[in-house]
Amino acid sequence: MSFTQTLQEYIQMVNQQLEEYLPKKSNLQHVVDDAMAYSVEAGGKRLRPVLTLEVCRMLGGEIQHALPFACAVEMIHSSSLIHDDLPCMDDDELRRGKPSCHIAFGEANALLAGDALLLYAFEVMAKAHQTHGTGYEEIAKGIETLSHCAGTDGMVGGQVIDLTYENQRIEYEILHQMHLLKTGALIRAACQLGAIAAKASPEQIQQIGAYAETLGLAFQICDDILDVVGDQQLLGKPIGSDEQMQKTNFITLFGLEGSRQKAAELTELAKQQLRQFDHPEFLLELTDMLLERKK
Ligand code: GRG
Question: Domain with 242 in it: what CATH number?
């Protein structure tokens, strides 16, 4: 099967499972169920769950065992995007080409939809033995990894750094630390969850984590580049938001060309880190594809 076919197959698998998972009740609180589904099904790239499934496959695991983990990561990612768009955070009205969750459902419902998705992620992981035959030990390790990477030592911590230095020029060390946590930690969790589902050794979990950190940084630099030269239509969100909020990013520190070069160097490093594994072909191609992405 070609790279593109495998990618499409993973995305379809994740979309189908997410649709099955998402509560669609006609009860009194259905507005929050609707808001959760609206955001999760808004057409994201599904990068993180694809990483989970492929890492599991690459390390000899059963993809089915990793599927609940993959969906949980995407739920947490969606939950973070809902919260990130709120007026008290980045105050963005457009996400994935559609009105942000709080514009479509109101601020309180969006806050609750983000909260509910965050909790539901751990519910689907906790039930992964009954639903997909994932081992109990892997479930416990998976929950530990994901909660750690999403919390104050991960994504939440990165967001706190971001808010703390809003409207300020910051040095590279702070920018690096912010993105390692804000964007990188969830990408690391996605990869490590795949390894955990495959019952990988602690050394392999650490090695795939190192690859994920490099990839996460390259991914964020491309995000910064797209915020300057991207196509608003393709991106599904306004460009120039960092400049408008006077945020320091890779472009302000290294310029457009310098940032492109840095992203290319990190992509090469990530590919080197992948070559430690048997059969990294799919991830090598995915890593290259992310450097050239337009959205
Ligand atoms: C919900 C635990 C929890 C925390 C929320 C608001 C917040 C704390 C964190 C913000 C995290 C954030 C929005 C980081 C940006 C990461 C990033 C580059 C997102 C874009 O990812 P893509 O391009 O998006 O994969 P799609 O839409 O394709 O899924």
Answer: 1.10.600.10
pTM of the model: 0.96
pLDDT tens across 55-113, in order? 999 999 999 999 999 999 999 999 999 999 999 999 999 998 899 999 999 999 999 99
Position in ligand 1 atom list of the atom nearest CA 219: 18
Residues near ligand 1 with C-beta < 6 Å? 44-45, 47, 77, 79-81, 83-84, 89, 96, 114, 118, 150, 155-156, 159, 182-183, 220, 223
- What atom in ligand 1 is closest to the CA of residue 114? 1
- Structural domain range at position 231: 3-292
Torsion angles phi and psi, residue 294, rounded to 5: -110, -5
Which string of DSSP letters, residue by residue, matches 133-192? ---HHHHHHHHHHHHHHHSTTTHHHHHHHHHHTTTS---HHHHHHHHIIIIIHHHHHHHH
Q: How many distinct structural domains can be found in the chain?
A: 1
